[in-house]
Write a structure and sequence with these properties.
587 residues, 19 helices, 46% helix, extended
């Protein structure tokens, strides 16, 4: 409407209606004489249009829309209103509007601005609509005028609100409110649940055994259709509160009794402690008196002619110098050599401990200064790999091996730049890891040589001439299961079949000579948790096939690496207990 008012030329209500037909004529909530069918045209005039609201259809006449939208007031009248002495008129007609050269706002712009301000206020509050019904006209208690109440209910629109409410979902609450109120009814969500509120609500709904037509999950709220469902849940909550009150009462009584018992125990212990302390102090005073008497006798005999003892001070100084010289000759050069620290005498034990702590800090500071960003990244990746694969047989072999971002040859790098980056990868994607790999078919378990490319968005499997075979978004990876042996086989479980033909259809079974490095790069790129990678401790992995069936992979220790088909079509992987080999045998 604002565009039609500002358009140069002869803008009329008919041109506005024509523009409405061109712009929103295909919207299923908009009908006019030009876009309606033959039956509907009989109910709409040529200068009218109709909006289909949820509460009913509303027909509007386009005559006068543009004049009412402009809502312009002459500049002279505004000038007079600005000079008025009434403060309300001065506030309604500010002087800035006369001084500014900006075009006055139209009615639709004012309405849109006012509505946006109102919605901002409403979204920051929690409005509650309360409708008061007058029971009688005489202000008498316990008097109910049925006709008067029906009249108020009818014209307040309460019946329409009830119909609309009953047609949809009568109960709607945010996930946090529903979860906090009813979480005590399910053992899985009570006390130790640490997930999100929506996940907790899903567990509660499953525990309450709601029917599918009784509820619906929204973005932030749970919608329940029938009040009976909520009443049943509230009855369960009331019964649970009674049980919890009994438990709390029992715990409080036990707590009070325990406090009383501990008070008695503390009093008895205190009395016993004071008495034993009194007896021990008497014994100590007696022994000190005896030792002082003996010491005075011996010292008086040895140094009976000397008033001071400088020999004692010389001995202490000699002991300290000797310890520092031995420490200089045996000073550790790294944190792993602190066993070379000389054993100090008791009189310099405290000084030795302080020097040891200070020297450790100096060595740590020197080591930290030698760590480069590249080495720090390597250490971070090694820490992540340790958390995931420390129980895998060949994990210790990968500790000394440096993780790299590409295992491709120079020829493969050129092919990747020419084919993959030029025609397959999108512009916004960045390659995080690349390596040759072996892929096993999900049905026949035949091995095929592939190139694995991991970008910040997807995982690609390409042929050796870099043609796209499979593409998997990282967000669709559900879990990665790894063999616990030295074979380097792992399975990437996906969340389901994809719509695109180039996407993988089922779980990926991969075999890599750098299994730990490959999985670590995938986890870091996809920002997955360490718990997403699982070792097949039980010696087997179950994966999904194209037709919805399940495949089975079994891991066995043997003399050499071997892949063979077992009974019922399962795959048996034989792994060596010695150093891993690059030999791949298919039986």
């Amino acid at each position: 409407m604002d565009e039609e008012c500002l358009r140069p030329g002869n803008a009329t209500d008919e041109t506005f209606l024509e523009k409405m037909n061109r712009t929103v004529g295909r919207h299923h909530h908009y009908i006019s004489h030009a876009v309606a069918d033959t039956t509907t045209r009989k109910t709409i005039k040529r200068d009218q249009f109709r909006l289909l609201h949820y509460a009913g259809d509303v027909t509007y006449n386009s005559r006068g829309f543009l004049d009412k939208n402009n809502d312009c007031l002459y500049r002279d009248l505004k000038d007079v209103m600005c000079q008025a002495k009434n403060p309300i008129l001065v506030e309604c007609f500010p002087v800035e509007e006369l001084q500014g050269k900006k075009r006055p706002e139209t009615s639709s712009s004012q309405f849109r601005t006012s509505l946006a301000h109102l919605m901002e206020i409403l979204m920051s509050k929690q409005p509650s609509y309360i409708r008061c019904i007058k029971p009688n006209d005489h202000k008498r208690p316990y008097t109910f005028d049925e006709d008067l109440v029906k009249h108020q209910v009818k014209y307040l629109g309460l019946l329409e609100n009830v119909r609309v409410r009953r047609a949809g979902f009568a109960y709607r609450r945010p996930y946090e409110v529903f979860y906090k109120r009813y979480r005590c009814l399910c053992p899985e969500t009570w006390l130790n649940f640490k997930g999100q509120a929506r996940h907790g609500v899903e567990i509660l709904v499953k525990h309450f055994e709601y029917q599918e037509n009784e509820y619906q999950f929204g973005k932030t709220k749970l919608f329940v259709r029938f009040p009976k469902t909520i009443f049943t849940t509230e009855d369960m909550l009331l019964q649970k509160k009674k049980e919890m009150a009994t438990v709390i009462q029992k715990m409080v009584r036990g707590f009070l009794c325990r406090i009383k018992f501990l008070l008695y125990k503390w009093a008895a212990t205190k009395i016993s402690t004071l008495w034993r302390g009194h007896c021990a102090r008497l014994e100590l005073l007696r022994r000190r008196k005896a030792a002082a008497t003996i010491r005075q006798f011996v010292k008086g005999f040895i140094f009976r002619h000397v008033m001071d003892c400088p020999e004692h001070k010389i001995f202490l100084r000699h002991t300290r110098i000797n310890f520092l010289l031995r420490l200089r000759d045996r000073l550790p050069t790294s944190l792993c050599q602190f066993y070379l620290w000389p054993e100090p005498p008791k009189i310099v034990q405290q000084a030795s401990d302080m020097l040891k702590v200070l020297y450790k800090r100096i060595l740590i500071h020197k080591y930290c200064r030698t760590i480069t960003p590249t080495k720090k990244k390597q250490l971070d990746e090694k820490v992540i790999a340790q958390n995931m694969f420390q129980e895998k047989d060949d994990y210790l072999d990968s500790v000394s091996e440096e993780f790299v971002t590409s295992r491709l040859t120079k020829h493969q790098e050129v092919m990747c730049n020419n084919v993959f980056i030029g025609s397959i990868k999108s512009k916004n994607e960045k390659i995080r890891y690349s390596s040759p790999i072996m892929k096993l078919d999900r049905t026949g378990y035949r091995t095929r040589q592939r190139i694995l490319l991991v970008t910040d968005v997807r995982l690609y499997l390409l042929t050796m001439d870099f043609k796209l075979k499979e593409r998997l978004p990282l967000k669709d990876i559900q879990e990665i299961e790894v063999s616990p042996l030295r074979d380097g086989l792992f399975v990437i479980h996906t969340k389901g079949e994809q719509m695109d033909s180039s996407c993988c259809k089922g779980d990926l079974i991969l075999l890599s000579d750098h299994c730990i490095e490959c999985i670590t790069k995938i986890v870091i790129t996809g920002q997955f948790r360490d718990s997403m990678v699982k070792l097949a401790i039980d010696g087997s992995i179950t994966h999904s096939l194209n037709n919805g069936k399940q495949g089975y992979i079994e891991f066995i220790r043997g003399a050499r690496f071997l892949l063979k088909r077992g009974k019922h079509g399962l795959l048996q992987v034989v792994s060596t207990a010695a150093e891993k080999t690059n030999e791949r045998l298919i039986n």
